[in-house]
Design goal:
This protein has four domains: 351 residues, Glycosidases (TIM Barrel, Alpha-Beta Barrel), CATH 3.20.20; 52 residues, Oligo-1,6-glucosidase, Domain 2 (Oligo-1,6-glucosidase, domain 2); 38 residues, no CATH class; 77 residues, Immunoglobulin-like, CATH 2.60.40.1180. α12 runs parallel beside α16. It has 17 helices and 20 strands. With 556 residues, the chain is an alpha/beta fold. The chain has an eight-stranded parallel sheet. A five-stranded antiparallel sheet has the order 14-15-16-20-18. Strands 6-8-7 form a three-stranded antiparallel sheet, with no helix packed on it. Helices cover 28% and strands 16% of the residues. The site of 1-deoxynojirimycin (NOJ) has 9 residues, from loops.
């Protein structure tokens, strides 16, 4: 397998709005990030993925961009950005930016022009259609509730927005749009940026004619997925982008790709495809979701492992995995897959052990390294995420869901769970800001915070630090093959990694009940040294009892 820096690295995802506020306006900013670079260096990460920092009216917290070549006022200036980039490079940390080009903001100058007249040169930068009998052009619903079409009075047509109505979809059929995007990418690469995470990149090619989507029982709108995900020209566009831009630089790319199976993934990340390095898959993130994300569906460890192992196996010698258990759109991993109460520390370390010992590049989402948890605000009015607020209007105010059921869904799955400010210390606002934070700090900051973590040798932080260090020292973790044992177990995840004569055995107890573990037959009697574990005094015997959420990595 070809060796690459982005395979060997560990990524830290940084959501600047909630990281560190340096000027007291309650909003995290670039100078706040600069202040904390030594903290990230201490953790040991070598790649930073920075969520969008471009000019934006922040309808969707920076995912609605009004100028792709400038920095958002709340976050600072271009000078600050350049200083951040320099500070990262001085510490041998690469910078990956967010590329949000399925849509722009409706406040982008292209859209202002586009909307002004059917004759504008920019009209065709977006997707405009006539209505049908006074109704939108098709039945598609948007990801953020309501129709995916917005009527515009100036020219009496509708424009498509798969996300909010302030995020009109760009028309990738238009070669001028593609050229604008490629030029903009080069602008950032020339400045020294090391890669892009590409927002819903598999949405950019739409099936011509934009047919109505399937509508399930009880659904208010049709589903655009079959006609706007992995569309007919997607690979042509990705290959063109590669040829025009990516092939000219040594950069990392990761595409956010909902609705992609491992088979489809190979078309995006396969060796000879000349498209992307890796994608974010959603099969694991969709586990436990009911008809809507606000309704719960029970899941089993068996299902969880089947998804993880399938991706490990399918992309074992062609393509590359991205390993993540949460991000700014998902609940906190310890609340979702672990135990955020009695066993918060043990389960956070267990999940981290899995993340850092699989085949692929691990992504740590800010706050994960200190075991930050989900949050529960009393009322929907305390939330800021438009996905939550729009869904509340549509479902609760529309009489389709009870307030308490919806709020239970928000506590479980809402995106603001991951967006509460970083808890730096137990002082006012968790040390995040001297002003009023844009989103309330999780009240558990008095116990869970960076200051505490740095004082305690046994903290989650230092465990992450060791895991990151182990990846640097053991190429078997990066390049070794993956083999699973005890697939049918509903309590233990067990696998080996092997590179030539180097072999690791990973054993993870996913629950708080103790469970017996017998070393797989072919490895019994072998000499095993503990490389890392979340408990002390790990026995060397073939037959052991795993403690709650115990994780052990043996070197064989
Ligand atoms: C995925 C991003 O991660 C999410 O935060 C955003 O709302 C949508 N794409 C739309 O850009």
């Amino acid at each position: 397998m070809e060796r690459k820096w982005w395979k060997e690295g560990v990524v830290y995802q940084l959501y600047p709005r909630s990281f560190k506020d340096s000027n007291g306006d309650g909003i995290g900013d670039l100078r706040g990030v600069i202040e904390k670079l030594d903290y990230l260096k201490e953790l040991g990460i070598n790649i930073m993925w920075l969520n969008p920092v471009y000019k934006s009216p922040n309808d969707d917290m920076g995912y609605d961009i009004s100028d792709y070549r400038d920095i958002m006022d709340e976050f600072g200036t271009m000078e600050d950005f350049k200083e951040l980039l320099k500070g990262l490079h001085e510490r041998d940390i690469k910078l990956v930016m967010d590329l949000v080009v399925n849509h722009s903001s409706d406040e982008h100058k292209w859209f202002a022009e586009s909307r002004s007249s059917k004759d504008s040169k920019y009209r065709d930068y977006y997707i405009w259609r006539k209505g049908k009998n006074g109704q939108p052009p098709n039945n598609w619903g948007s990801c953020f509730s309501g129709s995916a079409w917005q009527y515009d009075e100036i020219t009496e047509e509708y424009y498509l927005h798969l996300f909010s109505k302030k995020q009109p979809d760009l028309n990738w059929e238009n070669p001028e749009v593609r050229k604008e995007v490629y030029d903009m990418m080069k602008y950032w690469f020339e400045m020294g940026v090391d890669g892009f995470r590409m927002d819903v990149i598999n949405f950019i090619s739409k099936v011509p004619g934009l047919p109505d989507g399937p509508k399930g029982e009880g659904d208010l709108y049709g589903n655009f997925a079959p006609y706007s995900m992995n569309g007919p020209r997607i690979h042509e566009f990705m290959q063109e982008m590669h040829k025009e831009v990516l092939s000219k630089y040594d950069v990392m790319t990761v595409g956010e790709c909902p609705g992609v199976s491992p088979e489809l993934a190979k078309d995006y990340v396969g060796r000879d495809r000349n498209e992307l390095n890796m994608i974010f898959q959603f099969e694991l993130m969709d586990i436990g979701k009911g008809r809507t994300k606000w309704e719960e569906k029970p899941w089993t460890l068996g299902e969880f492992k089947a998804i993880m192992s399938k991706w490990q196996e399918e992309l074992s010698d062609d393509g590359w995995n991205s390993l993540y258990l949460n991000n700014h759109d998902q609940p906190r991993l310890v609340s979702r897959f672990g135990n955020d109460k009695e066993y918060r520390v043990e389960s956070a370390k267990m999940l981290a052990t899995m993340l850092h010992t699989m085949h692929g590049t691990p992504y740590i989402y800010q706050g994960e390294e200190i075991g930050m948890t989900n949050v529960k605000y009393a009322s929907v009015n305390e939330y800021k995420d438009l996905e939550i607020l729009n869904a509340y209007k549509e479902l609760v105010e529309g009489g389709l869901m009870k307030d308490e059921d919806f709020m239970a869904g928000v506590y479980r799955m809402g995106r603001d769970n991951a967006r509460t400010p970083i808890q730096w210390s137990n002082s006012l606002n968790g040390g995040f800001s001297n002003g009023t934070p844009w989103l309330k700090v999780n009240p558990n900051y008095t116990e869970i915070n960076v200051e505490e973590a740095l004082k305690d040798n046994n903290s989650i932080f230092y465990y992450y630090k060791r895991l990151i260090q182990l990846r640097k020292e053991n190429d078997v973790i990066v390049y070794g093959t993956f083999k699973e044992y005890y697939k049918e177990s509903e309590s233990i995840y067990c696998y080996t990694r092997q590179l030539e004569d180097k072999k690791l055995l990973v054993v993870l107890n996913f629950f708080e009940e103790e469970v017996e573990f017998l070393v797989p037959e072919e490895l019994r009697g072998s000499t095993r040294n503990v490389l890392i574990s979340n408990y002390d005094n790990v026995p060397q015997d073939d037959h052991i009892k795993l403690r709650p959420y115990e994780a052990i990595v043996y070197k064989i």
